[in-house]
Please model this.
Amino acid sequence: MAGELPVIVDPEMACLEEYKPAVLVEASLTKRNDFGLHAGLAPLVIALGPGFKAPQEADYVIETNRGHNLGRVITLGQAEADTGVPGDIAGYTQERLLRAPADGVFETERRIGDLVEKGETVAQVDGQAVRAGVSGMIRGLIRPGMRVTAGLKIGDVDPRGEKAHPNLISEKARAVAGAVLECILRTYNI
Model:
């Protein structure tokens, strides 16, 4: 329908043959190409972050690491390697992440935008508590009922609290989305 953008979650890319999209954006942020992404799967293939090479695996790779290159369009080569360290927000990095304490099913009644205190239980995985490492606002959270593995990032707490603006697009997401749009405009000469 006019004015709408279809988004399909399809890790196996089974829908490509049926839908034949003009643009394929690999946005799982898994930081590796475990599923055979390659240029030619669609007229335009765009990959976000490390683990992908342009032009072999994608026509364009977008830098997702915070810093001066955030949102850079890469036509030859790859994004910066995964540092394993989340971006610094108000002096916090690792401690703001929520990670699964065990393999199991993620369960929570909390929502993005909820305020939490350091040490407060935010969720459970296989009966084990997931506790906030900092006080702040829940800014990211996977869906309840998802099967997770020990150590997997399942959410994050923004230490800025009410100033975190959970209903607005972050500066990082805006830069990456703008780069995707730039690739589409370049390709289709719009």
Observations:
- The chain is about 10% helix and 25% strand.
- The CA atoms of residues 17 and 106 lie 33 Å apart.
